[in-house]
TrEMBL record:
The modification 4-aspartylphosphate is found at D53. InterPro entries: AAA_lid_NorR (IPR058031), CheY-like_superfamily (IPR011006), Homeodomain-like_sf (IPR009057), HTH_Fis (IPR002197), P-loop_NTPase (IPR027417), Sig_transdc_resp-reg_receiver (IPR001789), Sigma_54_int (IPR002078). Keywords: ATP-binding, Nucleotide-binding, Phosphoprotein, Transcription, Transcription regulation, Two-component regulatory system. PROSITE patterns: RESPONSE_REGULATORY, SIGMA54_INTERACT_4. It comes from Maricaulis maris (strain MCS10) (Caulobacter maris). One of its GO terms (cellular component) is cytoplasm. Residues 136-325 form the Sigma-54 factor interaction domain. One of its GO terms (molecular function) is ATP binding. Residues 4-118 form the Response regulatory domain. The keyword ATP-binding applies. Pfam families: AAA_lid_14, HTH_8, Response_reg, Sigma54_activat. This is Two component, sigma54 specific, transcriptional regulator, Fis family. SMART domains: REC.
Length: 421
């Protein structure tokens, strides 16, 4: 018997695309944009699987998952969402969905999920959406993997180790996991490297949920106390560390905490999330300072996407905060972004790197990117050298460390229709 798919999607174009893809894969499809209609179909025993968008005309379909489970406890549910946050993935997992597909997704992945789900039993559950911490968002595959890991951990009371470079948002991941477990961050005991050894041991005996931060900074004595505390039992621990397991963590402590592992990716592995992060942070700063929202032009966004961000999301946030204060609601361009970044440049080499990154980011959008970048640098160098030397090419060549003929030849290559820059 051909499986029957109920499709709930209010985007008419996407609804048509998904219906055709499912039909081509051999499924019968009944589609609607109305949650009430879909729920009535389910109530009447129609369909073998529900494929539903999360946000539908202002409503959140995740809040109907409990009803779906009561009406048809054996019906698998797959949800789709462009709201790429940890809360969405967590709520989907808590609601018992078979799979959560962040938009945009590959149609083949959707078909594979449907095929797999039809052999599985859906689970019951419901969870209200919570506000997502600004910065802990993203549609990239790397970030979606982190969200799904948090969602899996939310359904367990295992100890959890959250790994990642400094500044990626490990504490935010821990807070998201606490919320998913139904625990306010105010009700959890937070322990840092500054806490005495006695408090580390006592923390797991006095609270159901404990957050141990920055384990890589803990002394050997503190790590032994933590290990003894875990051996004594009682509380559940969510720990964070900014380095690999091989770099100094007590093996037994790591083994106990690694009942569940979550890896938060560095920003360089999720550059496609940077525009959304910029929007989120700039919106936060506009509310913070009661000012108009700062917008970024295309070149500014492109540069931010191409920057190194060794400090990860924390560094990006600091730059955008300075940018928001400096521009006060107007459109910010590349010069504004570079000025904000330059505040962190402590010496001439760092300053040069900032400008070089800007040139690289803009050049990489063009074919022959390296030649484009080199031409841009040479034009600027030669123009300023000639200005400083009053147009004297011999003196400009000396300043640049070139001979006069080389300078003349390169000038001709850069601008064959002019004798001067």
């Amino acid at each position: 018997m051909t499986a029957r798919i109920l499709l709930l999607e209010d985007d008419e174009s996407l609804k048509l695309i998904l219906s055709r893809a499912l039909g081509s894969a051999g499924y019968q499809v009944r589609a609607t944009a109305s949650p009430d209609t879909a729920l009535n179909w389910i109530r009447n025993g129609e369909g073998d699987l529900l494929l539903a968008d999360v946000l539908l005309d202002g409503s959140n379909f995740l809040e109907n998952l409990g009803l779906v489970a009561r009406l048809r406890p054996q019906m698998p549910v797959i949800v789709m969402s462009a709201q790429a946050t940890a809360s969405t993935a967590i709520s989907a997992a808590k609601g018992g969905v078979f799979e959560y597909l962040p938009k945009p997704f590959d149609l083949d992945d959707m078909i594979s999920a449907v095929s797999a789900a039809l052999g599985e039993e859906a689970k019951a559950g419901r969870r209200k959406m919570t506000e997502e911490p600004t910065g802990f968002i993203g549609q990239s595959a790397a970030m979606q993997s982190a969200f799904k890991a948090i969602a899996r951990a939310a359904t367990s009371q295992a100890h959890v180790m959250i790994m990642g470079e400094p500044g990626v948002g490990k504490r935010q991941a821990a807070e998201a996991l606490l919320r998913a477990r139904g625990i306010s961050s105010d009700d959890a005991v937070v322990v840092t490297p500054s806490n005495p050894v006695a408090e580390i041991f006592a923390s797991t005996q006095s609270a159901k949920q404990v957050v141990w931060l920055r384990l890589e900074e803990w002394s050997s004595e503190q790590q032994r106390a933590a290990r003894d505390a875990l051996d004594a039992g009682v509380g559940r621990v969510i720990a964070t560390a900014s380095q690999s397991p091989e770099a100094g963590l007590d093996p037994r402590l790591l083994g106990r905490l690694s009942e569940c592992l979550i890896s938060v990716p560095p920003l360089r592995e999720r550059r496609s999330d940077i525009p959304a992060l910029c929007d989120a942070f700039l919106g936060q700063f506009a509310r913070r300072d009661n000012q108009d929202l700062v917008r970024l032009d295309k070149d500014a966004v492109q540069y931010l996407e191409g920057s190194a961000w060794t400090g990860n999301v924390v560094e990006l946030r600091s730059v955008l905060s300075r940018l928001s204060l400096a521009t006060r609601g107007r459109v910010a361009g590349l010069d504004d972004v570079m000025t904000a970044i330059m505040a962190d440049a402590g010496d001439a080499r760092e300053a040069l790197d900032v400008h070089a990154n800007a040139i690289a980011a803009l050049s990489l959008s063009r074919t022959s990117a390296r030649a484009v970048a080199i031409d841009a640098v040479d034009r600027a160098l030669f123009s300023q050298a000639l200005d400083r030397c009053g147009g004297n090419r011999s003196r400009a060549a000396d300043l640049l460390g070139l001979n006069r003929n080389t300078l003349a030849r390169r000038l001709a290559e850069l601008d064959p229709d002019s004798d001067d820059m």
